[in-house]
């Protein structure tokens, strides 16, 4: 058995039986073997997907393959990771597959229990629907049903018409006589146990036959004639007409159950009525209720079956059923029954479909034949031979195929087949030395709708390609292209520059005879793996590196080549020292000053750890870039402004071409200083405020009051926000020095950044008093002032304000006294102002470091 057939038997067929549900376990779906290995997984997935493409040509697998491909697109990242050697995502998905399978099986089991209901019976068709929609196989569902005590069986066929035409009259007579059913009429009190009605009538202690009916008739004949005997005669007449009393009894029981069902009785109520009300044996009662509930339609019978077949598109089967049932094939008359009308419709559909099939068989154009057969199958889905003929109708071939080399592969493009009917697929096949004859004659190349790319074809050999259009199981003649010679260029070409030297390295294709290197029109000596060329510094040199192959005739064929440029430079000069200071205009960058190097370009990079290279060392720029972060720099009049962004080691490097010279290195702490520091005295305390540094959660506050020792404390952002700033208790007559710096952990060490500082000068408290003196015609005002220590007030003013409001500033009233360079203690006198009403007097000092303390309010108010 080949691989495809084995995969179909073990994977695709069970999936089809489960309603075209792909297996959740990816081990089964892709046939993966434990333990997983990355290379084996990649190869196996590729092989399985090729099997999908081949199997999709069969209609029965098409829907399943489409679902497999759709889900594979979602799984592609797992297999891409596996191809790179990372099996972690695939392993995690495999563990989840078992859980999803169990969950799906549990859901299907729940639906099965719901369908079985209290009868614990379910029809095979219902099992198939649940299996198909639930993604499990029929065998799995049957096992689950057995575990739950659910019986799977076809509903018993129940008669849709009475065995005797007079049954409706007999039913009315039974109701008048007060009998539950015909058996109760026949046996009366002798019917003491449950009766069976499905597989022939049977009940304990009684026997149903013609003699029983005759005995009952004789008993009624002996009774006086009245309405009861008349109704009994009607029932007996129907029994004789039926011929088989057990069939009439069964129909009578079924009709009574149908009547209850039409009255919307539940499943349990129907079962209880059958057992307790009608006296049916429990097993037969379950089967009867199950059959009544599963009846397709009130019409039932032959007409119902014909309609079901026609609705499903199976007109051929409907015509055969009508023929076996003996329905006439002539024209319909006015009294034709429903079954005859349906049979006529089936025959008409079948006749039209057969004409279309015959026309398709004689049609030369396959597209026209495909259209005719499609119309025939639309009329009659089960038309014999049409589906198979349709699958074998090939489309028109692809008009042309173009194949060109593309790097290490070949790119193919073609025009689509002119055929428009059906779903077309394209198969691309590659063969060496000659064109492929059929899809199996060569190696398959993954193809799209109008193009394909052959990733790894054999190199330097004549390759021929063919594209086939496929519809169903039929394939067209090939469109071919070739010969194509794939001659890869040297791979991984890399040039390294030095002091007057350019060195080249590459990977030479195994099929190439040698490699040619040309610099600016001059051939450079080279071997299969590289070259070393001495050239001038500071000049850009252009190289073409091409592979040379031997053609079929033994002549050399040179590829177009890989073009690459390099500029060698003299070794750069290192920067031996530089200075770093904060940028006052931008807290997120620093100003660096240094002496520019004579050769090379200065750059500054940031490292997390101290540089592993000694100063003045030369190394490739690529090596430096792997472990460092290049910092953006902008020349300014103050120096080079560099935005660091984080803490680390600030390293100066000089770059020339692909070489970097290591220079000086400084430890850099990226803790920006707070901005806008403000301080204000408020009585016996100093209030501080500042702009909190971005990204900082803690600052360090250092302060000194007067000549005391400095004190330090850490302030968190939460404390600062809760207090609306910082408050330092401090005497007003003592100066306060304050500095604030950002703080944080750099590694395991606590570090502080640049600090901002200011000094809050002391404030001198001066007390004063205002008093009146002298006779009434020459009264004066006397102002006395004093302080704890000698002090001089630059300017002292006495302000008068009429009314009831005290002056709050010098401009709030009339200045009645002004003194400059007042030394304390002092006593100052002015004439008492004469005003008609009351007024206020208050002193103000214009010196910012002096605070006047007012006397009691009653001393400042003059009655006038």
TrEMBL record:
Residues 1-23, 433-456 are annotated as: Disordered. InterPro entries: Fn3_SaeA_4th (IPR058694). Residues 1-13 have a biased composition (Basic and acidic residues). Residues 685-757 form the SaeA fourth Fn3-like domain. Coiled coil: none annotated. It comes from the Bacteria. Pfam families: Fn3_SaeA_5th (PF25835). This is SaeA fourth Fn3-like domain-containing protein. It comes from Actinomadura craniellae.
């Amino acid at each position: 058995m080949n691989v495809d057939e084995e995969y179909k038997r073990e994977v695709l067929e069970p999936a089809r039986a489960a309603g075209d549900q792909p297996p959740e376990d990816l081990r089964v779906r892709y046939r993966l073997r434990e333990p997983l290995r990355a290379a084996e997984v990649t190869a196996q997935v590729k092989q399985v997907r090729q099997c999908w493409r081949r199997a999709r040509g069969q209609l029965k697998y098409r829907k399943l393959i489409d679902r497999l491909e759709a889900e594979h697109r979602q799984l592609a990242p797992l297999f891409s990771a596996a191809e790179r050697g990372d099996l972690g995502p695939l392993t995690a998905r495999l563990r989840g597959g078992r859980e999803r399978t169990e969950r799906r099986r549990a859901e299907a089991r729940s639906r099965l229990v719901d369908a079985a209901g209290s009868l614990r019976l379910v029809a095979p068709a219902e099992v198939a629907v649940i299996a198909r929609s639930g993604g499990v196989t029929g065998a799995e569902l049957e096992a689950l049903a057995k575990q739950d005590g659910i019986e799977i069986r076809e509903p018993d066929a129940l008669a849709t018409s009475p065995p005797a035409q007079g049954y409706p009259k007999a039913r009315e007579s039974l109701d008048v006589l007060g009998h539950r059913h015909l058996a109760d009429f026949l046996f009366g009190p002798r019917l003491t146990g449950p009766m069976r009605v499905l597989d022939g009538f049977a009940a304990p202690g009684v026997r149903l036959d013609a003699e029983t009916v005759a005995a009952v008739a004789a008993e009624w004949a002996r009774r006086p004639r009245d309405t009861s005997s008349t109704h009994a005669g009607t029932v007996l007449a129907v029994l004789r007409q039926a011929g088989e009393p057990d069939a009439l009894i069964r129909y009578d029981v079924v009709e009574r159950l149908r009547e209850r069902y039409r009255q919307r009785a539940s499943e349990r109520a129907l079962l209880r009525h059958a057992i307790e009300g009608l006296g049916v044996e429990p097993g037969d009662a379950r089967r009867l209720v199950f059959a009544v509930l599963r009846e397709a339609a009130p019409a039932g019978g032959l007409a119902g079956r014909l309609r079901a077949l026609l609705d499903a598109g199976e007109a051929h089967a409907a015509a055969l059923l009508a023929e076996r049932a003996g329905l006439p094939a002539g024209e319909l008359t006015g009294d034709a029954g429903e079954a005859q009308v349906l049979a006529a419709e089936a025959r008409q559909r079948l006749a039209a479909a057969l004409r279309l099939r015959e026309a398709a068989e004689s049609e030369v154009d396959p597209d026209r034949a495909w259209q005719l057969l499609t119309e025939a199958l639309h009329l009659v889905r089960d038309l014999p031979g049409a589906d198979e003929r349709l699958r074998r109708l090939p489309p028109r071939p692809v008009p042309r195929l173009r194949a060109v080399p593309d790097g290490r592969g070949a790119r193919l493009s073609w025009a689509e087949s002119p055929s428009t009917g059906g779903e077309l697929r394209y198969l691309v096949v590659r063969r060496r030395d000659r064109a492929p004859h059929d899809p199996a004659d060569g190696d398959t190349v993954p193809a799209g709708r109008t193009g394909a790319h052959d990733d790894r074809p054999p190199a330097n050999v004549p390759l021929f390609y063919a594209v086939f259009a496929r519809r169903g199981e039929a394939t067209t003649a090939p469109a071919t292209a070739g010969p194509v010679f794939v001659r890869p260029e040297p791979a991984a070409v890399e040039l390294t520059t030095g002091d007057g030297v350019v060195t080249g390295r590459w990977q030479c294709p195994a099929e190439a005879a040698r490699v040619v290197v040309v610099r600016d029109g001059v051939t450079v000596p080279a071997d299969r793996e590289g070259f070393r060329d001495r050239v001038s510094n500071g000049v850009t040199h252009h190289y073409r590196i091409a592979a040379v192959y031997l053609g079929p005739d033994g002549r050399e064929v040179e590829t177009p080549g890989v073009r690459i440029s390099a500029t060698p430079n003299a070794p750069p000069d290192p920067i031996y020292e530089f200075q770093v200071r904060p940028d006052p205009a931008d807290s997120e960058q620093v100003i660096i000053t240094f002496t520019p190097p004579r050769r090379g370009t200065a750059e500054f990079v940031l490292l997390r750890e101290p540089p592993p290279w000694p100063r003045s060392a030369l190394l490739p720029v690529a090596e430096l870039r792997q472990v460092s972060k290049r910092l953006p720099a902008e020349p300014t009049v103050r120096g080079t402004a560099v935005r660091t962004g984080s803490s680390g080691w600030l390293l100066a490097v000089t770059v020339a071409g692909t070489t970097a010279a290591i220079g000086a290195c400084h430890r850099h702490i990226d803790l920006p200083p707070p901005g806008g520091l403000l301080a204000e005295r408020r009585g016996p305390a100093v209030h501080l405020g500042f702009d909190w540094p971005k990204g900082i959660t803690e600052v360090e506050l250092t302060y000194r009051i007067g000549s005391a020792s400095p004190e330090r404390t850490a302030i968190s952002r939460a404390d600062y926000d809760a207090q609306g700033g910082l408050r330092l208790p401090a005497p007003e007559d003592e100066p306060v020095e304050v500095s604030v710096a950002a703080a944080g952990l750099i590694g395991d060490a606590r570090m502080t950044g640049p600090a901002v500082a200011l000094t809050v000068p002391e404030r001198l408290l001066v007390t004063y008093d205002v008093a009146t003196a002298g006779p009434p015609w020459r009264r004066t005002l006397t102002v006395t002032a004093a302080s704890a220590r000698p002090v001089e007030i630059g300017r002292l003013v006495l302000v008068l304000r009429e009314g009831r409001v005290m002056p709050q500033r010098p401009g709030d009233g009339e200045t009645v006294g002004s003194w400059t360079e007042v030394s304390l203690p002092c006593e100052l006198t002015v004439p008492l102002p004469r005003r008609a009403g009351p007024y206020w007097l208050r002193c103000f000092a214009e010196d910012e470091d002096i605070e006047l303390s007012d006397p009691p309010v009653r001393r400042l108010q003059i009655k006038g």
